[in-house]
Amino acid sequence: MMVEPPPSQVQPDLAALYVRHREVLWRVAQSRLPKHLSHRTEDVIQDVFAKLLEKPPTQLINNWESYLVTLVRRHAITVCRKERDDRHGELPAEDGAAFAVGDGLAERAEAQVVGQALSRVEPRRRHVLERVVIADRPAKEVAAEMGISEGRISVLKKEGLQQLKSELEQQTGVAS
């Protein structure tokens, strides 16, 4: 008599998962990688699957697509950070320090401009943008929190992004 292992010990068919979810994973990796790193998209996805082969998850995964998307997103961000650190490491020490400080100041200035524009976005739209776009929370979760439908979250997000863009254009005087 053969005993079935508990679901948490059953290894998924990673090849089938790759085939089933590769388009979504590709889009996720592409959305997180800057253009100059877009050639690394497939590497990011393959790295995730290689790590899964080496060390499969110990917990039960109910939604593999969501799990894989999260892993790919995180790994793409790690690749960006590593590339940035490597790039800064190639600069001479004094130039590298100045470059890093300059980047930090520019990033803070940009963040301040965006923060000011975001503060002028209608409150419900701003709430959705802060939760769904900035905090990267699922629309379904935010919809339940606000007591509205996912469709309404999508509309508020779209309107919020349009209003934010308009506020940024007014603030900076640059139309995109």
From TrEMBL:
The UniProt keywords, alphabetically, are: DNA-binding, Sigma factor, Transcription, Transcription regulation
Q: Which Pfam families does this one have?
A: Sigma70_r2 (PF04542), Sigma70_r4 (PF04545)
| One of the record's GO molecular function terms | sigma factor activity
UniProt entry tagged with the keyword Nucleus: no
Entry's InterPro entries?
A: RNA_pol_sigma-70-like (IPR039425), RNA_pol_sigma-70_dom (IPR014284), RNA_pol_sigma70_r2 (IPR007627), RNA_pol_sigma70_r4 (IPR007630), RNA_pol_sigma_r2 (IPR013325), RNA_pol_sigma_r3/r4-like (IPR013324), WH-like_DNA-bd_sf (IPR036388)
Every RNA polymerase sigma-70 region domain range: 17-84, 117-165
Q: Which GO terms describe its biological process?
A: DNA-templated transcription initiation
At the top level, the lineage of the source is Bacteria
- Family according to the record: Belongs to the sigma-70 factor family. ECF subfamily.
Name assigned to this protein: Sigma-70 family RNA polymerase sigma factor
